[in-house]
Amino acid sequence: MKKFFPAWVRVPLIFFSVFAAMEYFTDSGDRPAFIKFPMISVFLFVFLFLLIAIEIVASAVDNVMYQLLSDEQKKQLAEVSSIDISLTDSPAYKKIMKWLTKSEPVENNEFLLLDHNYDGIKELDNKLPPWWLYLFYGCIIFGAIYLVRYEIMGGDNQEMELKKEMALAKEEVAKYMLTAPDRMDESKVTKLTESGDLAAGKEIFNNVCAACHRADGGGQIGPNLTDDHWIFGGDIKNLFHTISNGGRDGKGMVAWKATLKPTQIQQVASYILSLQGSNPKDAKAPEGDLWTDPAAAKTVAVADPNTAAPEPKKP
Questions:
Q1: Which residues of 4-15 are buried (b: 16+ CB within 10 A; e: fewer)?
Q2: 123: Cβ–Cβ under 8 A, 6 or more apart, which residues?
Q3: 281 SS3 class
Q4: By Cβ atoms counted within 10 A, which residue in 38, 175, 233, 287 is the most buried?
Q5: What secondary structure letter does DSSP report for 229?
Q6: What residues contact 125, with CB distance under 8 A and at least 6 apart?
Q7: CB count, 10 Å around CB of 153?
Q8: What is the per-residue pLDDT across 63-99, written as a single tens digit (0 to 9) for each?
């Protein structure tokens, strides 16, 4: 191996082979493995250091062993080393080059001479190398196809393809933004009723809300969440906004949008609404205004527009 590959070729070849294998067999997603997993970088650095150290030690050992040889042994070693083990002299290499170039031996030049004679300069009738000839034919075929496809049939060029792909990507991003759970805001949030979502909301409530509102929602430092009085509104949109941005300045709840994801805020808000009317023991007195859903009130008004207002009671 040392006769064919010197150290400056051997070390990078082994190192990058191991590096490629690590990248191929390590599941690192869309990031390189040596960046996502620092231990791989450490391993590669140590491995490269050991490779270089082994080459230095091996070279030093060879030098010491050579100095210990006798003059006769050094002469024999020089004769063996002078034998040229060249790849270009192998029959397989010569056969491949013969097929690629179709070249003729120098001995056949007299049969290849043309009748041209320019001041004693003669021309050989050598065949074009097949690799060059086939590449030339391929370029002609490619040029013909390109001409028909893009100039005659009006196919999209690179600029038009890019514009179409960008437009399609914008449409896909817009569709994703409409339904992406972690891009939700108070204008798109809806109340959840599935048991799994409410269970997740309950867990979040117990972890971050129960300290101020009690585990049953009856209120402690924070207001009672089970009655029909609300400080900032009592529907899912108002709750989502309040949990995300916090309560009253100076004495209200902190904003949780930096801690909880939008889907988690939706779950805990839906769970809080499920506590309505639960009437826990020793609940805190109502705070805020009596909440009436504007949508429900509007529905009632539209359903019976001729309903007369109740007459005031007589004293």
A1: eeeeeeebeeee
A2: 113, 114, 116
A3: coil
A4: 233
A5: E
A6: 112, 113, 114
A7: 8
A8: 888 888 888 888 887 777 665 555 566 777 778 877 7
What are the average pLDDT values for consecutive 10-residue runs of the chain, which has 315 residues? 68 92 86 86 92 90 87 81 60 78 72 74 78 92 92 86 92 77 75 89 90 86 86 86 82 83 88 88 84 65 52 44
- Per DSSP, the three-state class of 254 is coil
Q: What is the rounded CA–CA span in Å between residue 242 and residue 255?
A: 8
CA atoms of 160 and 147, how far apart (whole Å) = 17
Cα torsion through 260, 263, 265, 271, rounded to 10: -130
In the numeric block, which tokens belong to residue 261?
A: 């994801």
Q: How many CB atoms lie within 10 A of CB 247?
A: 16
Query: For the chain, where are the alpha helices, taking DSSP H only?
Result: 7-25, 33-36, 38-68, 71-81, 91-101, 109-112, 130-146, 158-179, 195-204, 210-213, 236-245, 262-274, 294-303
Residue 25 in tokens: 């067999």
Closest to 255 in 3D by CA, of 275, 276, 235, 232: 232
CB atoms under 10 Å from CB of 1, counted, come to: 5
- Give me the count of residues in the chain: 315
Place of tokens 């049969």: 111
Global pTM exceeds 0.85:
no
DSSP label of 306: T
